[in-house]
Recover the amino acids of this structure.
């Protein structure tokens, strides 16, 4: 079922891999900042962005493998979706503890918490759809990839703004 989606997953995988590289550029440019606060910002915003991009990249690789059937890929995607949901819920607690001023509005809460949990649940549902040969399976996986890309881009931008604000403090 995922074979028909090879162009989509090839595009999203390439985009995710490129954006991971740009995250490393941001880390390099923030090298001269206060280590403890930079680490808190990275844990609160960059790690979720990296996780989002890595999720898209991994989904793309799984989708592009020429499996004999969709059952194994479906099982892997279900496991990734469940693990991602657990990780993202844990991240909500961690971001509350750090309390970054750059991550405090309603839009931030939605893009750091609600949408990533929904994307992980979509991934698990898509994997379940592949396991049962349901027609919605590939669509749910594609929705998950799209949501993760959107959130990762937003999170990387928030990370950049937080680091700029930290650099500009006297």
């Amino acid at each position: 079922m995922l074979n028909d989606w090879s162009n989509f997953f090839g595009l999203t995988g390439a985009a995710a891999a490129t954006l991971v590289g740009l995250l490393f550029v941001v880390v390099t440019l923030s090298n001269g900042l206060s280590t403890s606060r930079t680490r808190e910002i990275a844990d609160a915003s960059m790690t979720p962005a990296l996780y989002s991009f890595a999720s898209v990249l991994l989904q793309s690789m799984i989708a592009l493998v020429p499996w004999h059937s969709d059952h194994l890929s479906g099982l892997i995607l279900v496991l990734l979706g469940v693990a991602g949901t657990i990780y993202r819920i844990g991240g909500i607690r961690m971001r509350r503890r750090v309390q970054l001023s750059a991550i405090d509005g309603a839009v931030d809460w939605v893009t750091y918490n609600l949408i990533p949990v929904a994307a992980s649940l979509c991934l698990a549902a898509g994997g379940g759809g592949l396991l049962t040969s349901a027609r919605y399976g590939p669509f749910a996986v594609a929705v998950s990839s799209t949501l993760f890309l959107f959130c990762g881009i937003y999170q990387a931008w928030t990370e950049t703004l937080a680091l700029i604000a930290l650099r500009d403090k006297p």
